[in-house]
Amino acid sequence: MFPYYRKWGVRCGLLALAVFAAAPVLAAGRPDLAFAALAKGTPHVADELIVQFHAGFGPAEQARALARIGASPADMIVAGGRRFDGKGDLVAVKLPRGLAVAAAMRNLEIESIVEFSEPNWIYQHLANSNDPFYTNGSLWGMYGDTSTPSNQFGSQAGDAATNNCGGVWVGIIDEGYMHTHEDLAANAGKNPGETGTAANGSNKETNGVDDDGNGLVDDVRGWDFVNNNNSVFDGLSDDHGTHVAGTIGGVGNNSKGVSGVCWSIKLMNAKFLGNNGGTTANAIKSVDYFTDLKTRHALNMIATSNSWGGGGFSQGLTDAIGRANTAGILFVAAAGNSNVDCDTSSSCYPAEYANANIIAVASLDSNGARSSFSNFGATTIDIGAPGRGVISTVPVRSRGRIVSGYASYSGTSMATPHVSGAAALYKQRNPEASASQVKSAIMNSALPTSSLNGKVATDGRLDVSKF
Fold first, then answer.
1. Active site residue: 44, 125, 179, 240, which one?
2. N or C: which end of the chain has fewer CB within 10 A?
3. Range(s) for CATH 3.40.50.200 in the chain?
């Protein structure tokens, strides 16, 4: 999957441009369309296949089915016994040398214990404040009609009576994020099942024990599904995830940098995007990670923020988003940066999945125009939000050390976290609201915007001042 953004690095008054263009992709909703996508070169893991087995079939039966193609299990994506939807194991399998993914899918079609198989697609990255970037007029995406400074095309967060979302959690499914950043540390959440003192007196955060029983050891800040460890921040390469985090929950009124939509909030991270993008298998694990946290630990988690896209249709991923819906978690998704109509192009996954809990977000510039790169869709894309020239938190290198910094990026990646933060803000003010009610409130808040008329389902842009 790819991150939906372009970025302008800001450091000591210098402006350096680096463009990250989102390549168009072909999606597939049926096996024959998957074959067509593969034939056209849609990025995928060349020697892997994702296989969904029917419930009730264990390792021995699965092994016999996979023996038909000479494949072997490589990774348990979702174990049937840990699922919330009653289905069987979802497994990534390693194909033998020389066997193409399409051929493997065809050969598995006749196995009765296989529900479906699909490629492992590759994705890529897509109240006034005294904070400097807010007061100097740079943070336009947070402004409202009456804020100081003002911008009618901002998210109207600056007009909100309060920006406290402290009792609400948002999961960032992206790169890692710099949870020690000066503008994020106070809002960096910790997994409650991995904090405190264990029965034997050890510190749960560092005792090397899976204290919360989710199969992951010491996942205090979240989990890195790329490297399979608990270090969700690995340096400068985690800039995209850090930028997203700052828009959702940059600490407000602390005389530093930026303010997020939520000045106080709890952020958690599932890192699945690395230097080479991320896979469907790890995207599914990331979505289920937050579903598990909410289901078993009762975290007040209202949304995950998803600024990425690519690949073809994945039944495994849409099933995972469905499990999140059952748990009451919204899936806020970037529309994409290819300037295509998602109603007809089928190249906007995961934004164009039909799951009821998805809010798909297009990008606006500071003049109210739909950003030239932004995808759109009168039925598939829901709402617009600030996405061009958005300043937020990033890690930077200074004198050989990685320190807190700020940069201006553009893309639907930047529009998405405005809406993720808005979901948390509404949930904080309306604690009894269900996920569907939070989504309805966001959709109903939309301000009519001419550039979005007929381009998104609401015909308008985010307005949190109506909450």
1. 240
2. C
3. 2-17+126-466
Instruction: Summarize the confidence of residues 124-140 as an average pLDDT.
Output: 50
Neighbours of 136 (CB within 10 A): 10
Q: What is the pLDDT of residues 166-220, one digit of tens each?
A: 999 999 999 999 999 999 999 999 999 999 999 999 999 999 999 999 999 999 9
Residues of the chain with CATH 3.30.70.80: 31-121
**350 preceded by a cis bond (ω within 30 of 0):** yes
338 is catalytic: no
User: In one letter, which amino acid is 66?
Assistant: L
Question: Which residue among 413, 420, 451, 465 is the active-site one?
Answer: 413
Residue of 47, 131, 174, 459 with catalytic role:
174
Tell me the backbone φ, ψ of residue 98, rounded to 5 degrees: 90, -10
174 carries an active-site annotation? yes
Burial of residue 447, with CB atoms counted within 10 A of its CB: 0-12 exposed, 13-18 middle, 19 or more buried: buried
**31-121 CATH choice from 2.40.40.20, 1.20.1250.20, 3.40.50.150, 3.30.70.80:** 3.30.70.80
Task: Work out the pLDDT band at 26, boundaries 50, 70, 90.
Answer: very low
pLDDT band at 143 (very low <50, low <70, confident <90, very high): low
Overall pTM surpassing 0.85 (yes/no): yes
Residue 463 is a catalytic residue = no
